[in-house]
Amino acid sequence: MGELPHKRHTMFKKEDGSLYREQVMGTKGFSGIQSILYHHHFPTAVKEASYLKDAIPEYEKQGALQHRHFRTAAYDKKGDAVVDRCYFLGNEDVLIGVVNPIETMNYFYRNGDGDELFFVHHGTGKIETMFGEITYEPGDYILIPIGTIYRVIPEDDQNRWLVIEATSAITTPRRYRNEYGQLMEHSPFCERDIRGPERLTTYDEKGEFEVVTKARGSLHRHVFDHHPLDVVGWDGYLYPWKFNISDFEPITGRIHQPPPVHQTFEGNNFVVCSFVPRLYDYHPESIPAPYFHSNVDSDEVLYYVEGNFMSRKGIEEASITLHPSGIPHGPHPGKIEGSIGKKETLELAVMIDTFRPLKTIEQAKEYEDEAYMKSWVTE
């Protein structure tokens, strides 16, 4: 996007003869994916640096191993997309929470610890980034790569997001990519469904601009001497993009398909799956509801978006359930029998499976349905 020199690492001059400033932004040293950006100003021109606070949430003490249900819709605090996040679960690889961003950020933000993935449950708006602007609407997954400077500008007061913060890259599933990185024919989505930045707006302004940086588990304040979105052009493979859950094409079969067919993203030690409206299994004796299964090496988290989730009772919009490793889980009483003969489901949900145990964040208990573990017991 924007203006680029013909050859990388060569002089790229402004009209007055001075140089644009080239920045290589890449992962895994110089062996991962990268992009090259051209700035009006030095991206290192920071007038002030200060420590803000520890950003590692407080986890509860170890309690009984049990299934848990958090009614996140009860979290009604509204604010901006960063400061007012409410975290519910986390471990060394990922943080999971929600946010109700209705205020425009009066500062910029970058996460230097890993990629961020947002799922827009409700609301519209735009995200201004150093790579350009991305508008969003309900159903959008928005991927913000590590180190990207951005701010969120909501358009209405209905914004509600699921937030997934990784300490790694978040990518499309490897098994859906060929050796060249292209999504293959059996993938439930393809490159045509992916939307990158829509326009590149460049700000050539001097002044004081605040960028909050998350790094090493803490928040830091950097004051730039210029507008941080001063990029005139860039190219490469590292950039923010979005994918709408309505473009996910479900894989179905004659009998119940396992959760990996719903996988949409993967990070280090976790995956993200999309449960979307789909036809049920078509074997004449199939049971559409999932079988009971034991997560012997992963925790399962579900965020319920809309519809009547076929295997659960007592779940509401924006509920989060945690089914931890070590004990089996499965459909509520009556849900197996009730699914027989049904032709389709209209459920919509986001699932996160982690391969290291999740811990519950202390503030999450305020929104917990403490009776959930006993909801499989029939009188």
Question: Could you please describe the fold and organization of this structure?
Answer:
The chain contains one helix and 28 strands. The chain has one helix at residues 335-339, and strands at residues 21-26, 34-39, 46-54, 68-71, 86-90, 94-99, 108-111, 116-122, 125-129, 132-136, 140-144, 150-154, 160-166, 194-195, 206-215, 218-226, 231-236, 241-244, 263-267, 270-275, 278-279, 293-294, 299-306, 319-323, 328-329, 344-345, 348-354, 359-360. The protein folds into two domains: 44-63 and 74-244, Jelly Rolls; 250-373, Jelly Rolls, CATH 2.60.120.10. It is 1% helix and 39% strand. The strands form seven sheets. An eight-stranded antiparallel beta sheet has the order 14-18-11-8-13-6-5-28, with no helix packed on it. Strands 4-24-23-27-20-19 form a six-stranded antiparallel beta sheet, with no helix packed on it. The protein has 379 residues and is mostly beta strands. The termini are far apart.
Q: Per CATH, which architecture of the largest domain?
A: Sandwich
Oligomer: single chain
Name the CATH superfamily classification of the largest domain: Jelly Rolls
Low-confidence parts lasting 5 or more residues at pLDDT below 50? none
CATH topology grouping of the largest domain: Jelly Rolls
Q: Enumerate the strands of the largest sheet in spatial order, edge to edge or round the barrel.
A: 14-18-11-8-13-6-5-28
Query: What is the count of DSSP helices, taking H or I runs of 4+ residues?
Result: 1
- Count of extended strands: 28
Rounded to an integer in angstroms, the radius of gyration calculated over CA atoms is 22 Å
The run of helices and strands is EEEEEEEEEEEEEEEEEEEEEEEEEHEEE
Taken from the alpha-carbon principal axes, the silhouette is globular
Distance between the termini: 63 Å
Q: Tell me about the biggest sheet?
A: 8 strands, antiparallel
Arithmetic mean pLDDT: 95
Helix content: under 10%
